[in-house]
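User: Hi! I'm working on a homework problem where we have to compare a predicted structure to a textbook description. Could you give me the structure for the chain below?
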Amino acid sequence: MDGFELQLAFQAMSAVTTPLQALTIFEKHFNVLKDWRFICAADDDHGPFKLKNKVIDDVVGIRSIFKGQSLWVIDASMVEKEGTVPYLAGTGIYFDSNAASYIYSLGYKDKFQPQLKNQLLRIQSLGIDYKNINPYLYLFESRRHFDTRPENREFSRKTFAALTALSKIGGPLDESWREMYQKYFMEQCESNIDSLFNDFIAKHENGGFSSLDHLFSLTELLLLETKILDISSEKKNEDKLEELIYFMDEKLQIMLLRELAICADILFRGNKTQLTTKLLKVNSGHTHALGIVQGCAWDLFIFRIMDWFSNTSSELHTDFYISNLVSCDRDIWGIADLTMLKAIALHNKSFEHVIFPEHSPENILTTALGKNKQEFPGDLFSYDSRQRRIGWTLGKDKNEVYARKSNEIQELLKEKRMELLSIIHK
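Assistant: Happy to help. Predicted structure tokens:
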């Protein structure tokens, strides 16, 4: 079955609002979609897989990539077999660097400050199953500073150890927990994680995360170009957005759906997220512009990593994987609200996945661009446009092709960083 028919089926799926509607589309396009598994979110808790989407005081919370309260699975087995079809879902709890820093302070700092106590009480009230904590997203985030701040490696190692201790020590996250950790568990936990941490460091130093770094660079580039247009261009906002989309389509050769919603919010000053507000303050004379942009790019990128984790289940002997993020960062929750998914499609024979945002990027763009440019977003999502964007991946020597593309993106990243700085420091 060719890609055109598959894209038509995905387009039909993008219009659904409930798992029942998704099932109808799947059955209608069964021959095209039979190699895909759809994980669909429901607003109620009737689905077999429950979601933890909870935020306390708009600050501390736990969120998945999905909207709603539960998930349903739709695939060929579910459609073809009668009765109940068993599925096994893996679950991961990820702490971002903000939330993880409180766990580090709990385990290693001497003074128990009021702010620390309050944040730990909030984290505890989330009802986290500590047995499912996975430290790797935290390590992915902290490794951004491994080379520029070598002391961050030791901090990350100790944080890793403290995170693993959460499943070993019961009771409140307070002074008694710290005493137990330092007296009975610290040495053991640090020893247990040494091999895993050293392997992670080795992979970092040997370029083992180059694919991840490439995707992060694309996210940073999109935000850099957004700010360049925001500060320097005298064009109308809709013209700036059109120019940004051309940049993404032609230079980056990828459609970053989640990121587009945020960039449109920046250019039109929608202030729908804390991240938008933060980036709008990056203007003439700002002293830490690149650091702010990179931090915001990571906040956006976290959810892209969680998308990717959804289809790593074959390595874990499960049917799919539900990622949950714990954070104490207001920026995160605005992004989660604006970019949450109503479904994700996972390919059964590869790690490929396709996201279906609750807030349609095509609708967001159509509304932002106005009546005079209504045909433009549709062209971007067409089959021909997609084939053109992925054309560079079709070379015979994949390693050479991807290496050349990565070098091009890194050079463009340097160029855009310098361009933004020159604009700001005029």
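For your comparison, note the following. Strands lie at 36-42, 49-50, 54-56, 60-63, 70-74, 89-95, 320-327, 341-347, 353-357. The CA atoms of residues 158 and 190 lie 7 Å apart. Good luck with the assignment!
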